[in-house]
Design a protein that fits this description.
It contains 2 helices and no strands. It has helices at 10-22, 27-57. The protein is elongated.
Length: 77
């Protein structure tokens, strides 16, 4: 691992320290997990944006998903 220096507002540091203590972890571990989650969210947002752009460029047809309607039946009706 690499050590990095960051500048954070005092209120944010206090909140992170309190949460880390409540979660029985360290400030560094809490921050690593938060950064990993932010990166994952960003990746998902980019993939969703690409998905939306694809459907804008080529919208689905009226009967495109008709083939799968039988697959949606759970048999509990």
């Amino acid at each position: 691992m690499r050590t990095v220096q960051m500048t954070l507002d005092e209120d944010l540091v206090q909140t992170v320290d309190r949460l880390a203590r409540d979660l029985h972890t360290t400030r560094s571990a809490f921050t690593r997990e938060a950064l990993q989650q932010a990166i994952a969210r960003n990746k998902i947002q980019k993939l969703e944006a690409r998905h939306r752009q694809g459907y804008r460029r080529k919208p689905e047809g009226a009967d495109e998903f008709a083939l799968w309607e039988k697959e949606q039946a759970w048999g509990d009706q």
